[in-house]
Amino acid sequence: MSTDLMPNRYRPGEVELPRREAALIARRDNVLGSSYRLQYRKPVHFVRGEGMWLYDPDGRAYLDFYNNVPSLGHCHREVNAAMAEQAGRISANTRYLEPKLIDYAERLVETFPVEIDHVVFTCTGSESNDLALRIARLDSGNEGVIVSAYAYHGTSAAVAAVSPNLGDAVKLSPNVRMVSLPGPQGVPEAQAPDYFEAQVRAAIFDLNRRGIGVAALLIDSIFSSDGVWIDPPGFIAGGVAAVREAGGLFIADEVQPGFGRTGVHMWGFERHNVVPDLVTLGKPMGNGFPIGAVVGRSAPMDKFGTTARYSNTFAGNTMGIATADAVLTILQRDRIPDNALAMGRRLRAGLEDIAQRHDAIRAIRNAGLFFGIDMGLETAPPAQRQAQALDVVNTMRDDGVLISTTGANEDTLKVRPPLVCQAEHVDLFLASLECALARLAG
Amino acid sequence: MSTDLMPNRYRPGEVELPRREAALIARRDNVLGSSYRLQYRKPVHFVRGEGMWLYDPDGRAYLDFYNNVPSLGHCHREVNAAMAEQAGRISANTRYLEPKLIDYAERLVETFPVEIDHVVFTCTGSESNDLALRIARLDSGNEGVIVSAYAYHGTSAAVAAVSPNLGDAVKLSPNVRMVSLPGPQGVPEAQAPDYFEAQVRAAIFDLNRRGIGVAALLIDSIFSSDGVWIDPPGFIAGGVAAVREAGGLFIADEVQPGFGRTGVHMWGFERHNVVPDLVTLGKPMGNGFPIGAVVGRSAPMDKFGTTARYSNTFAGNTMGIATADAVLTILQRDRIPDNALAMGRRLRAGLEDIAQRHDAIRAIRNAGLFFGIDMGLETAPPAQRQAQALDVVNTMRDDGVLISTTGANEDTLKVRPPLVCQAEHVDLFLASLECALARLAG
């Protein structure tokens, strides 16, 4: 595991900055303190966004192949118009009768398998995962949570405590167990389902033996922070069944894969042909407006709702609902998941072509428009592979293309453009990547 | 303590509803499930908001004396214009350099005593309290949290576990201790500081004896969910000092009292002449846009920030910052806290006048425009007092004026109008209250 938890960042003194940026950073550090990090060796500063593009104060355009919140593109006019229209009319809370809240809830639930028929709104993906854990713990009567080895599920105390990705400074819960994934362990695909199930069963055994029991298997179906390990489809099914046998729930964290990113499917768990008990939503749900949700089966959600009051001031207010409703309308009307699939295929083909010419690409994995591209030779030391990945990311940033890194060693390029990207954007990205690789080799 | 955690709510079958509302509620229950409650015996449904007023589908106007999120009034044009303008330009995240983020952070911090100079943004008050607890626990190395007897601090797992207000179904943390407040215990004001300090010291003693230690005293300076117990100013100071002696932090939950509600002061803790270590913000910060913050002293915040990465996707995005910046500008430019003080005085004088004619008013407490009005005779059984409060609230709702109840017995009227209310609104409210009291007596 990388000791630097965000290696792709600005470090004072590493690069020379224009006076304007240096002065801003000094003021920023003074008032925001050390919790905040700036991305890239040389920080970026944008004053305008439109679709796939971000513009700096000098008018230079950057192609965004990284931000997965504005899935419909930056500053989407139709979404913003829906938000502004609603803000000017009324933004009622959920304790008042509001037909739009009900309409949207019904539309959202319809995008799920029939077993999943309830929704509770939140404001962020972290709040969604936090609430899902509360529901699973109340429903099961158990406390244990099983996650992947390098999982990240959010920022609240309860969720950070089951997020090993946050590193040693954030104490893990005594009730969490991490399971290895078959992919990063080099397990052949044919054995992946058995391997994963065995890992989960071992975790359940240990949790039961200590009287903790298992409340939930909480996973993101593309394992994004582990480095994007998505294959083979269905490999999680045995682990899911084992958790259910033990009285726990399966929570699918769809904050990153959800809303069409994996292509064809609206939800990432559909690739694995499993139906979760609870599903957590966030990031792209409002294309930037803070809104999330827990969607799930009625039994655990009603058991929670009838006893533990859940009231979230902003969540489900009409302004957020109108915004999310516009996003869902556009996703469906414009067949955005189909575009994610088609552009994902084009991007994958281009990457495979480049990989033939550049040894630095070790492996390519993707589901739709979420890519992990491993950098560096298998035989190279981890630090060297990470340095190569960071060099590529920052060379591309200087070239006006935005991506970053992920994975346990942070040597995997993380590529997840807005879902509205077109062939021309894919080709620009590929050209920039090939230039960066050529410079790396030179 | 009331066994019904939200007594002022709709119960199926209690009142006859028009077919339109009945059908909506059936659909709502079907998809949202049991976590959601509708306020008032007969639910309200609004289609338009403007300033102090909400309008139902038949065009009937309701005077809002309850909602403390839209402090500047419903659908504020200037705030909404700032939000829409920014949404159309760019909404960058905090890992990009953004001068507006820094400008607003500096302006916000300037409204606090000089010791408080750092800010971290969140999306909700719950996230603010959750993060503040994480900071306090990391800084102190302790786990214990001291709260008031009937405190409510939010919805995340960690915060719900220190919110006794949520009732028996939500398990309290083994590390939380509740302290009684002098007011509800009938302690004379002169003895209130000593009483509170003794309560806090006893909690510290118990936490230390069990090896838990004290991480924080977490209180809302007007104790809103305990029933609005605000006097005498300064009564919390000895308790705050005791917690600091024991190595814990003082966290002021300003989600309800903050941003000028208490009149004159911007922050509720200023009434008590104490300077917190951490301050948590939420509700009115964006006049309805989901934004919150933890503001505090640099030592604990930097200790947390340098070790535990805190990254909150939506928090501090430029759209939220532009909205909050407009709110702060208007609060300061239009001297909104002064208006809260003046209108609070007018409302208090009117209530005292009414109380002379109506025994049903047992006590009146307020700080600025946050009022608690106890209903029912001291000698009446608690259930009867609660019924009187609910009758008044629902009679006023039918009369087109919105308030609700609070306190351990839910027999205290909770009155907290938007801070822009004017004399005419105060007088309308008073007239409606007097009518409701007359009907109660009749």
Automatic annotation (TrEMBL), chains A, B:
Cofactor: pyridoxal 5'-phosphate
Alphabetical keyword list: Aminotransferase, Plasmid, Pyridoxal phosphate, Transferase
PROSITE patterns on file: AA_TRANSFER_CLASS_3
GO molecular function, one term: transaminase activity
InterPro entries found in the cross-reference section: Aminotrans_3, Aminotrans_3_PPA_site, PyrdxlP-dep_Trfase, PyrdxlP-dep_Trfase_major, PyrdxlP-dep_Trfase_small
Domain of life: Bacteria
SUPFAM superfamilies in the record: PLP-dependent transferases (SSF53383)
Record-stated family: Belongs to the class-III pyridoxal-phosphate-dependent aminotransferase family.
Name the record gives this protein: 4-aminobutyrate aminotransferase
Organism placement in taxonomy: Bacteria, Pseudomonadati, Pseudomonadota, Alphaproteobacteria, Hyphomicrobiales
